[in-house]
Amino acid sequence: MDLDLDRIARAAREIDPVFLHTPQYVDDQLCTRLGTRVLTKVETLNPLRSFKGRGADFAIAALPAGSTVVCSSTGGNFGQAVGYAARRRGLRAEVFVPAGTSPVKLARMTATGAVVHEVDGDAKEAAKAVTGPGRVYLSDGLHPAIAEGAGSIGVELATESFDTVVVPVGDGALISGIACWVKEKRPGVRVVGVAAAAAPALVESWRQGAVVTVPQENAFAAGITISRPEPVAVTRLRALVDDMVLVTDDELRAAMALAAETLGVLLEPAGAAGLAAIPKLGTESVATVLTGANADVR
To answer: Which of 93, 202, 236, 243 could form a disulfide with 83 if both were Cys (CB 3.0 to 4.6 A apart)?
Structure first.
């Protein structure tokens, strides 16, 4: 295991305070609708409207002065986070995204000061191709510091009581960081990942114990849409995650509506994945993370 509990604890102290100590609470109406006790952690009330700033800030804080941070971002939230954290640390950022990325997310990435490149091919390969001296490539599912920064969510969640935590899964950084902490501090808690049925690559890789490439059917849940996970992400999740489930686009839409009606939170599809999975779990007490609210509502 390449993730470190001491570094997760340090992230919970040192990352930009704007991302820390997000609301976590039990809403009676939501619990009634889902038929179980649900602790929700709202990671949308920050300048990025997503949890991604935690990992990006922790990783970028360790980079040399004068660096240019280069990344790819399928859903756009990681690109926002890299742009925001790089500017805060006095660095430059370039983000490579697939052509057709949400206009909402393109505008928000550009607003951070990042240079955004839309590419017709593989955005990740395009980003790797321009790295070199003074240009540092960051991959959301690869670098330990990103998962450790996201693991600060687990530090905060572990102060509450629940028997299962269900976490949206795209590249695996969020769930591996949370699970690393929770498995150590709350060993009886079951950790469940939830992915979009239209993009099951990491779930299939977790099940088979090896990297599996699965072409995505669509990018409705763009924030958790990948076709091929990093090998190290599969290794981490095989060690830390107890189960995985898939949710359909219709289940994500229903969860988005549920969050709006009960919590007053307008989530993007990926951000509602944890809520969408809860009816499949059969648990008496569950925690989940509302991970993003960069929805294109036009």
So the answer is: 93
Short-list 96, 149, 145, 90, CA closest to 124 = 96
Q: Measured between alpha carbons, how far is 273 from 283 in angstroms, rounded to an integer?
A: 16
Q: Which amino acid is at 111?
A: A
Point out the residues of the chain with pLDDT beneath 50: none
**Beta-carbon-side half-sphere exposure of residue 7 (alpha carbons within 13 Å):** 19
Whole-model pTM: value is: 0.96
Q: Please report the domains of the chain, with CATH numbers, ordered by start residue.
A: 5-50+148-290 (3.40.50.1100), 52-144 (3.40.50.1100)
For residues 58 and 149, the answer to whether their CB atoms sit within 8 Å is yes
Q: ∠77-83-85 over CA atoms, to 5°?
A: 100
What are the CB-based long-range contacts (under 8 Å, 24+) for 113-122?
113/83, 113/86, 113/87, 114/79, 114/80, 114/82, 114/83, 114/86, 114/87, 116/79
Report CA 101 to chain centroid distance, whole Å.
17
Residue 92: HSE in the Cβ half-sphere, 13 Å Cα cutoff: 8
In angstroms, the Cα distances linking 150 to 55, 123, 154, 225 are: 5, 23, 8, 18
State the pLDDT at residue 256.
Answer: 97
Strand pairing partners for 190?
164
| Percent of the chain clearing pLDDT 90 (strictly above) | 88
